Amino acid sequence: MKITMKEAARLLCDAQTIILTSHIRPDGDSIGSTLGLMHYLRSLGKDARVLIDDELPRIFNILPGTETIERPAKGQRYTADLLVVCDVELKRTGAVVPSVDALHILNIDHHVTNDEEAEYLYLNPEYAATCEIMHDLILEMGGTFTLDIATCLYTGMATDTGFFRFSNTRPHTMRAAADFLEIGVKQSKIAIAMEMKSYDEMMAQVKAIRNLEMFYDGKAAAVFIDEEKAKEVTTTEGLLDKLRVIEGTQVVFFMKWLEKDTYRVSMRSKGTNVSRIAQGFGGGGHIRAAGCTLHGSFEESKKRILAAIGEELSR
Question: pTM (2 decimals)?
Answer without folding.
Answer: 0.89
